[in-house]
Design brief:
heterodimer, A: alpha+beta, seven-stranded mixed sheet, 14 strands, B: 371 residues, alpha/beta, 2 domains, five-stranded parallel sheet, 17 helices, globular
């Protein structure tokens, strides 16, 4: 056999220049960021939008309010641990809460697909109403459109929330400082894996339930105790990894997280291992990440842990001066790896 | 968690690392063949922990990386056809062909679906009798039995709207190619545990003998890999060149005979192209003549498509350990994670990306890079 020259082994490289919208543009990773900056901010940018927070602070007749909007396209519409109705309430209220504001009202816009069973719609709107009632935030405006069969996946919902800003409690993605400790209020990865298991019909030993929940009470608790919270973020699509990367970039700081400290439920970890996914990139809908100065960390943890939603709150890492813009993970064995933004969706690995 | 945490225990791993360091009287260069092992090594930072004692070269054992451009282009053409549902494992969706990838074909209206098993693709064919369902049968010997099974079942069930686009490759010819490549630096191999769980290890014995190299059949968890490395280093220090089995909980010398038999039933050895390398004789599998009806290339007349590989990226030199990423002319300038020339710069586990990030990490940003 003749010798083989391997000089030209070209590995596969993803194509990043595209002429059409792809699913990866909705992943919360690098493709989403590019779409946002090149196709939206290039046309729409202004001071409020340029903050790139979960929402914006705007001044209305002398009062500062926070406004945030989100659109929900989850399939299946109902999943273990929640449904699109309660999710649409929690998601948008959480975004307002992450700005340090107390939500006061919501709007809801529905796109319904011809043929959607009325009883499904009933259940979803009832669930939405219960979620809003529990949060004490009324739905004050709404809209409904119906499209032909095949033009929507059952139903889509957009919700917008308005909240009252608090001038003394203003966490923001640019405020992380070296020394800050990073706290997660709950275990990671449940929502994304619950949806994936339900969507793909994957059967595991137990049913993974979504963590979809309203985080307002946790934030109000931190606020009432006047904890000096530098950054608050709910790590939804793209997971904790993408949220931490955004904060590291926005604050121009380095972030270090400890693998052994990361809370991931056994069932989520097992499902991720099986599919070759990393729970750090899996979506959460009932988790907040809080950056607090070291002197405040014990108090913040105690407050979070006093709520059922925050019972498992734990410190997962810290902000450092080194490697600004990068998130590094200390592995359980003492090695380091960089936790980067993914280009697009996390795809199950073959090997 | 059962069967996971036991193999990631730092209180065992750290002493193992110490033993490797003490055993190695000089730096040794090993290659792990399989992409799954590379994943663990980089995710756990094992390469960093072994720095100075053992250099790990990441081998060509990632099906995503070695599937040739030609087969990708065939997949893209099939997926774009009306009436075809093209099914694939998830990570093949982002592998680029000559001008686009499967995700883009999907955005343009092609029916492309991710499946977790070829048998799911077969079931999809049964549920959609009016469509042609094609499964992209890629991978090494690990995925071959299930792919063979899907074809076998399709024939048994008389399903005529199911076919497979085969791009199977096998490990031993790759090891041979690496050992024969000029300037090779690899002194020992960690063989892929899952491949050997199917095939056993008898076919590695002549390789160890011919090239005088230790080959250790190794699992995928951190402790597996560290133990495999220790066994290989011990052999090198002793001047031995044997095939040893670290992955005793899963692998026997004869492999899994029923799985091998099913591969034999459905596939035969064939010449195969590897991405960037070109054709290696008898390095892959193709469907046997009696299963020609399930061969997507014949069914859809794709035989005429031939594509040459581009050769601007030097990933091959990096993979064979002949080039350190920072010494590549494009590194950090024309080739960055945002605008990669090769897959090694793309995935955060790729060797080039790892170097790039470490450089940033240490404050020594490569030229042309925003730290």
């Amino acid at each position: 056999m003749t010798a083989i020259e391997i000089a030209g082994l070209v590995c596969a490289m993803p194509i990043t220049v595209v002429d059409r919208v792809q699913l990866g543009h909705g992943s919360g990773g690098r493709m989403s960021a590019t779409l946002l900056s090149e196709r939206f901010l290039s046309h729409l940018s202004n001071d409020a939008l340029a903050q790139l927070g979960d929402g914006s602070v705007v001044s209305v007749a002398g009062a500062e309010i926070v406004i945030s909007t989100d659109t929900f396209v989850v399939s299946p519409l109902e999943f273990p641990g929640g449904d699109i109705g309660s999710l649409a309430v929690h998601g948008t209220l959480n975004d307002v809460a992450m700005m340090g504001a107390r939500p006061v009202c919501l709007t809801a816009g529905f796109v319904l697909e011809e043929g959607l069973p009325i009883d499904v719609l009933d259940r979803i709107v009832r669930s939405m109403s219960e979620a809003a009632r529990r949060a004490g935030v009324p739905v004050v405006a709404g809209d409904t459109k119906v499209v032909e069969r095949g033009k929507a996946d059952g139903l889509y919902v957009n919700t917008t929330a308005i909240g009252a800003a608090d001038p003394d409690f203003r966490p923001g993605p640019t405020r992380a400082r070296a020394g800050d400790l990073i706290i997660t209020s709950a275990a990671l990865g449940r929502h994304g894996m619950a949806i994936m298991a339900a969507r793909e019909g994957l059967a595991f030993e137990s049913t993974i339930t979504s963590d979809s929940a309203c985080l307002v009470e946790l934030v109000e608790g931190l606020k009432a105790a006047r904890v000096d919270v530098h950054v608050l973020r709910d790590p939804t699509r793209g997971g904790a990894a993408s949220a931490l990367n955004e904060i590291a970039s926005a604050s121009r700081v380095g972030i270090e997280i400890d693998e052994h400290a990361l809370p991931v439920p056994d069932d989520v970890r097992a499902a991720c291992e099986m599919l070759g996914l990393d729970p750090l990139y899996v979506a959460n809908e009932g988790v907040l990440l809080a950056f607090v100065p070291p002197a405040e960390a014990a108090r913040a943890l105690e407050i979070l842990q006093s709520y059922e939603l925050g019972a498992d709150a734990v410190c997962i890492g810290r902000v450092v001066d080194a490697h600004p813009g990068l998130v590094a993970l200390r592995t359980s064995l003492g090695g380091t790896r960089i936790v980067d933004l993914l280009p697009g969706d996390q795809l199950p690995r073959i090997c | 968690m059962k069967y996971l945490t036991e193999y990631r225990d730092a209180s065992i791993a750290l002493p193992l690392i110490e033993r490797i360091r003490k055993t190695a009287t000089r730096p040794w260069t090993l290659m792990e063949v399989c992409g799954g092992q590379t994943h663990t090594i980089v995710r756990q930072g094992l390469d960093e922990l072994l720095d100075g004692a053992v250099e790990m070269i990441h081998g060509p054992g990632c099906p995503v990386c070695v599937t040739p451009l030609e087969q990708i282009d065939k997949a893209l053409q099939l997926a774009a056809r009306p009436g075809v549902i093209f099914t694939s494992f998830g990570d093949m969706l982002r592998v680029p062909g000559s001008d686009c990838d499967l995700q883009q074909v999907r955005a343009r209206g092609g029916q492309v679906r991710i499946v977790y098993s070829p048998l799911d693709a077969l079931a999809l064919a049964q549920r959609n009798p009016e469509s042609e369902v094609v499964f992209f049968a890629v991978g090494f010997e690990t995925t071959a039995p299930a792919n063979a099974m899907a074809v076998w079942r399709a024939r048994e069930l008389g399903v005529t709207n199911f076919s497979v686009l085969v791009s199977h490759v096998t490990v031993p010819p790759a090891i041979r190619a690496i050992m024969q490549s000029p300037g090779n630096r690899v002194q020992g191999f960690l063989a892929a545990g899952h491949v050997c769980a199917v095939m056993g290890w008898s076919e590695y014995e002549p390789l160890a003998e011919q090239y005088k190299i230790p080959i250790v059949v190794t699992g995928f968890e951190p402790l597996d890999i560290l133990e495999g490395i220790l066994m290989a280093v011990q052999q090198l220090e002793d001047g031995r060149n044997e095939v040893e089995n670290q992955y005793v909980r899963s692998v026997r010398r004869e492999g899994t005979p029923p799985a091998r038999a099913r591969i034999e039933d459905v596939f035969e050895l064939a010449d195969r192209k590897w991405r960037g390398i070109g054709e290696i004789p008898m390095s892959g599998l193709r469907l046997r003549e009696e299963f020609a009806a399930f061969d997507a290339e014949r069914k859809f007349g794709l035989g005429g498509i031939t594509v040459n590989e581009p050769a601007e990226c030097r990933a091959g030199d990096v993979l064979t350990g002949r080039l350190k990423p920072p010494l590549c002319a494009a590194f950090g300038t024309r080739c960055t994670p945002e605008h990669p020339l090769g897959a090694l710069m793309v995935s955060s586990e790729g060797a080039c990306a790892a170097y790039y990030h470490i450089a940033k990490h240490r404050g020594a940003a490569p030229a042309g890079v925003m730290a």
